Amino acid sequence: MTAALLTLADSRLPAGGHTHSGGVEQAIAAGVVHDPATLSAFLRRRLHTSGAVAAGLAAAACGADPTTLVRLDQEADARTPSPALRAASRQQGRGLVRVGRRAWPSPAWDDLPERPHHALALGVAAHAGGLLPRDAAAAAAYLSVSGPATAAQRLLAMDPLAVAALTARLAAEIDAVAAVDGVPAAADPLLDLLAEVHAARKDRFFAS
Amino acid sequence: MRTLVEVVARRGPGGHTVLPVVRAGGQYAVRRTGPATLHLVATAFGPLGGDEVAVRLVVEEGARLCVRSVAAAVALPSRGAARPSVQRIEATVAGVLDLAPEPTVVAARTRHVAELEAELGPDGVLTAADQVLLGRRGEEPGRWTGTTRVVRGGRPLLHTTVDLGPGAPAWLPPVGPRAYASTVHVGSDDRPVATGADAVRLPLPGGWTATAWGAELHRVTGALATLTAPERETA
Amino acid sequence: MPPDHNVDDYVDAPAPHRHGGPLRVGLGGPVGSGKTALAAALCRTLGAEYDLAVVTNDIYTTEDADFLRRNAVLPDDRIEAVQTGCCPHTAIRDDITANLDAVELLESRHPGLELVLVESGGDNLTASFSYGLVDVQVFVVDVAGGDKVPRKGGPGVTAADLLVVNKTDLAPLVGADLGVMRRDADAVRGGRPTLLVSLREDPTAAAVADWVREQVRVRGAAGADTTRA
């Protein structure tokens, strides 16, 4: 089932991920990210907060019944008090449902609430693709850093080899986050602030 | 040391709040300092690593309860194995609960865990504030992990864990503040998003959660106050 | 391919040459060639005939959307700006999710919508729209870019359903030979139409509007059965 997981976590899967920077665009504007070292720190804090939450939600959503999916969507909202981050998550969820329905047809898609959080769509996509909850968590954890890494590379014209290297060096941490039990609630108020300031800007490349 | 504090606030004759249950033991004593106000008074140093404090608050419909503390708590390391000190507050709120203890100072090489779990009734109003300073003057910061979960009618409204201090991934340079303050309010005070330099207020159903951080606690609480003004109702 | 390979197991639906709902027209082309001016002209000229809306893919700001609001007499709720994540090309060709979201939003807001113009962010000669996003596409180049542009080709110039060579009024000033451009374009476009226009001299973009009318007539009414030329 590895090939399905690779497809799910592939940044080329047309689910709209390339228009989201995971907060990196505003982190750069705020001076928080400006080189590979600060990018690595940013990716780590994102991985261990929103990445860990997404991994837990995706695993829980993989194979879940409709009632549980509704409850998980509420739990995702409770862990995402930032309206900008909720909107970004639901926008990406909608995009993944659109391509996921075509790629992995399954009745499970109909169990999702309208415009689900991205992590829930990942869980259902994994299930529909014959994957396990831990695979859904792995995809969520990986995507929580791969998207922002690429965005930073574009925005700062960073050396793509340096960005690839620092992402690769996070592999053990990504695996550890994907293996976490339950649905963590790890929050980072800095990411909330960056997301809200970003959403209010007119001059931005990325949707979030 | 294990500490248990239990308080029940009930609407009494004439609408005044009565407190039929007020129990405390271990490292806290409880003093009633107003018609519906209690102060927690530390009777021992600490908390120390390994100490556990459980606070159970029930505010029945029509009752009000305001909980304060008399002085900052200084969380200190355990003598033996590195165990955290834990403070867990469970609140069942059908009336009005206002929870605003003095700051927690987490000394170097110390881990402190603070948890608040609040179950609100349909008309329940909650205001809960946290103020944290990592490290006493001139020493390394300690580590503070705070979880807030607010549920109303079975639906989670807010569930966040903020982990601050050395070793916490969301406390990496260049943004690893020593001071942190947060207030959550759920009731009937809808407010939109607001942002400050190092502060943000986010809407909740019937309320908001506001957070500020920085190098000095008094500046952080000032930044938070600008997001939470007009001042909270006091019981 | 294994001997028992059944193509139906791999292809989920016939390639959609025509999406349901309003006709979606892509407007692509290099920076400064006049895409936004053309979109505004089409809105002004066709706005009274069709229930129409516009999606813009600005690379950085909402400038194009703001321009359309000012110049196209199009209300705000008929213009959606899409963020392209620094890659306007990706957003119209490789991952069209954000644009599909915008089209669907406009459709839900205006149930009678007949025509959606999707304007790409300024890109280069290799940029083209995915037919998963649009039904037909127009590629806009300009005379000021030099009369070699059609000869250079690229997917936009060779394969677009309509090639528009804009700013013909500048030809004498930049030493461009319109005859050469016409001949080179015809040579690489396999019979697909090319229009030489000057939006400055004709702010109604009459010839392009006529082509769009024809597309709506041929493709719009016939729905999903119509195949792309």
TrEMBL record, chain A:
It is found in: Cytoplasm. GO terms for cellular component: cytoplasm. GO terms for molecular function: nickel cation binding. It comes from the Bacteria. InterPro entries: UreF (IPR002639), UreF_sf (IPR038277). Keywords: Chaperone, Cytoplasm, Nickel insertion. Belongs to the UreF family. UreD, UreF and UreG form a complex that acts as a GTP-hydrolysis-dependent molecular chaperone, activating the urease apoprotein by helping to assemble the nickel containing metallocenter of UreC. The UreE protein probably delivers the nickel. Required for maturation of urease via the functional incorporation of the urease nickel metallocenter. This is Urease accessory protein UreF. It comes from Geodermatophilus africanus. The lineage of its organism: Bacteria, Bacillati, Actinomycetota, Actinomycetes, Geodermatophilales. The gene is ureF.
Automatic annotation (TrEMBL), chain B:
Pfam families: UreD. Keywords: Chaperone. InterPro entries: UreD (IPR002669). GO terms for molecular function: nickel cation binding. This is Urease accessory protein.
Automatic annotation (TrEMBL), chain C:
GO terms for cellular component: cytoplasm. Coiled coil: none annotated. The keyword Cell division does not apply. It is found in: Cytoplasm. Residues 25-193 form the CobW/HypB/UreG nucleotide-binding domain. GTP binds at residues 29-36. Gene3D superfamilies: P-loop containing nucleotide triphosphate hydrolases. Residues 1-21 are annotated as: Disordered. GO terms for biological process: urea catabolic process. One of its GO terms (molecular function) is GTP binding. Keywords: Chaperone, Cytoplasm, GTP-binding, Nickel insertion, Nucleotide-binding. Pfam families: cobW. It comes from the Bacteria. InterPro entries: CobW/HypB/UreG_nucleotide-bd (IPR003495), P-loop_NTPase (IPR027417), UreG (IPR004400). Its main location: cytoplasm. Homodimer. UreD, UreF and UreG form a complex that acts as a GTP-hydrolysis-dependent molecular chaperone, activating the urease apoprotein by helping to assemble the nickel containing metallocenter of UreC. The UreE protein probably delivers the nickel. Belongs to the SIMIBI class G3E GTPase family. UreG subfamily. Facilitates the functional incorporation of the urease nickel metallocenter. This process requires GTP hydrolysis, probably effectuated by UreG. NCBIfam families: ureG. This is Urease accessory protein UreG. It comes from Geodermatophilus africanus. The gene is ureG.
